């Protein structure tokens, strides 16, 4: 479970990007994070993976207080958080399989030699995940030979390869066509249900958010202005 307690972020520039965010995400729940540009969605996601230091408040994942970790502890904590990105963040010159396996390292491997470290079990799990996202036949292709939708499938498999306790997903469909977007959202949702994995998805498209989330959190000017069931969402958010 993820818990945020009175989390605020004011940037050095004076921008109050997030104010007093309080909520819990239980296991298996998919939260769609919506709101206009500048509302604080990215700031919220970045506070959780500590790419941004919150000014106030506490964030806990399981038993771990994420705020106030030293660099080494933070590295360990980040391995428990799977990230999926808008622009996929794959290593283009590596194969699909190598990209998926890199999820286990928690960082992008600089050379292929890193990948020789993986056990048969690691590789079996990666194969099974690639099969799950429909890319088993493409395991040996370079990432730069894939379509956008295929790349995002690799991104999903890579995040799951970490066996994460939380998924943070930043605009996963912003570069994809509507049909592929729905397929990607469905994959993420199903993966979370199967693994009882909580997720926060920063998503601009309100319809998609409603269709594929268990719960919607709406942000506006750094404030949570809606927190509830997708079908309870009103036009003001
Ligand atoms: P969203 O993801 O909803 O578009 P952001 O979290 O990116 O919103 O931004 C929220 C507010 O914080 C905006 O006013 C934005 O200009 C500001 N902001 C975001 N990142 C920074 C930063 N690194 N430094 C200063 N201000 C920032
Ligand atoms: P996105 O919304 O796709 O996350 P943005 O265009 O909001 O990206 O931000 C791009 C980068 O600029 C981010 O690192 C963000 O933190 C930073 N940023 C955004 N707004 C500001 C701002 N007002 N001042 C300084 N940096 C900002």
TrEMBL record:
Principal cellular location given in the protein's record: membrane
Record flagged with keyword Oxidoreductase: no
GO MF: ABC-type phosphonate transporter activity; ATP binding; ATP hydrolysis activity
Membrane topology term: Peripheral membrane protein
Subcellular location: Cell inner membrane
This protein's GO CC annotations: plasma membrane
NCBIfam families tied to this protein: ABC_phnC
Protein name: Phosphonate ABC transporter, ATPase subunit
